[in-house]
């Protein structure tokens, strides 16, 4: 059995002030709330908007390709697709080349909802970027892209 050890409060302050994971999570939640509110009139959450956008391709992508793009595991993606399927925004079909694999596509209604959401996203996105320091948006995107890459082994 291990002996309980107290973590000094200074450590708590250090984590609060420097932890990249904490700061990224807080920013992600704050951004998601803003986009959720803005997209509510078209019936989408920010996550659903991202998912519909990921399906907006010339050829239907596989579940694996979309999961990789969105940095989600396949099970979480499958669960996120269910309400979009029920609403008739997304269709899931067997891949004719590999019946074990599933392909995802936007339905006509899904394309309409996405088209309605894009101007809302553009306006809010521009407002958020305008509130960042001049070099902020590109530097932030670059840093986040670096953080989202798989860790080197």
TrEMBL record:
<dbReference type="Pfam" id="PF12802">
    <property type="entry name" value="MarR_2"/>
</dbReference>
<dbReference type="InterPro" id="IPR036388">
    <property type="entry name" value="WH-like_DNA-bd_sf"/>
</dbReference>
<dbReference type="InterPro" id="IPR039422">
    <property type="entry name" value="MarR/SlyA-like"/>
</dbReference>
<feature type="domain" description="HTH marR-type">
    <location>
        <begin position="17"/>
        <end position="149"/>
    </location>
</feature>
<protein>
    <submittedName>
        <fullName>MarR family transcriptional regulator</fullName>
    </submittedName>
</protein>
<dbReference type="InterPro" id="IPR000835">
    <property type="entry name" value="HTH_MarR-typ"/>
</dbReference>
<dbReference type="GO" id="GO:0006950">
    <property type="term" value="P:response to stress"/>
</dbReference>
<dbReference type="GO" id="GO:0003700">
    <property type="term" value="F:DNA-binding transcription factor activity"/>
</dbReference>
<dbReference type="InterPro" id="IPR036390">
    <property type="entry name" value="WH_DNA-bd_sf"/>
</dbReference>
């Amino acid at each position: 059995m291990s002996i309980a050890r107290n973590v000094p409060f200074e450590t708590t302050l250090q984590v609060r002030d420097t932890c990249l994971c904490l700061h990224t999570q807080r920013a992600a939640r704050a951004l998601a709330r803003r986009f959720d509110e803005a997209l509510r009139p078209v019936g989408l959450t920010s996550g659903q908007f991202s998912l519909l956008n990921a399906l907006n391709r010339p050829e239907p992508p596989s579940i694996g390709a979309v999961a990789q793009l969105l940095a989600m595991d396949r099970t979480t993606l499958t669960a996120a697709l269910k309400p979009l399927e029920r609403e008739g925004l997304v269709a899931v079909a067997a891949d004719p080349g590999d019946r074990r694999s599933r392909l995802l596509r936007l339905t006509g209604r899904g394309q309409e909802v996405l088209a309605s959401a894009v101007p809302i996203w553009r306006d809010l996105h521009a407002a958020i970027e305008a509130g960042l320091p001049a070099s902020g948006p590109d530097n932030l995107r670059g840093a986040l892209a670096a953080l989202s890459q798989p860790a080197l082994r």
